[in-house]
């Protein structure tokens, strides 16, 4: 029985040691993540209030003039209203 456990321990050591040697840290040693990431302010705030139609009109304003609503903006307002206000999409 001892020889059996010794062979299992040897097999475990052979297979486990390369995996243990290749542990890669999640973040680099100098605590800098790789890649061109945008710095996020430490005090980020968000609103959990329901989206209003005025918010959707502001999101859909493509030409910078809120007094003029183009056909493309109407399509975007309809889509955003369905997605953000919760109206189901109709086919």
Quick take:
This protein is mostly helical and 91 residues long.
Describe this structure in words.
It is a single chain. The protein has 91 residues and is mainly alpha-helical. It is 47% helix and 0% strand. α2 (53-60) packs across α3.
Q: Give the termini distance in whole angstroms.
A: 70 Å
| Percent range of helical residues | 40-55%
| Binned strand content | under 5%
Order of helices and strands: HHH
Shape: elongated
- Which runs of at least 5 residues are low in confidence (pLDDT < 50)? none
Nearest-angstrom radius of gyration?
28 Å
Summed up, the helix count is: 3
Number of beta-strand segments: 0
The biggest beta sheet reads: none
Distinctive features:
91 residues, mainly alpha, 0% strand
Helices and strands, with pairings:
Layout: H1 2-21, H2 53-60, H3 71-85
């Amino acid at each position: 029985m001892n020889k059996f456990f010794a062979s299992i321990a040897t097999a475990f050591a052979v297979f486990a040691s390369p995996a243990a040697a290749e542990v890669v840290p999640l973040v680099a040693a100098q605590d800098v993540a790789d890649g061109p990431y945008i710095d996020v302010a430490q005090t980020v705030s968000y609103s959990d209030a329901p989206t209003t139609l005025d918010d959707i009109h502001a999101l859909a304003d493509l030409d910078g003039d809120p007094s003029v609503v183009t056909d493309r903006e109407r399509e975007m307002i309809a889509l955003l209203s369905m997605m953000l206000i919760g109206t189901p999409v109709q086919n």
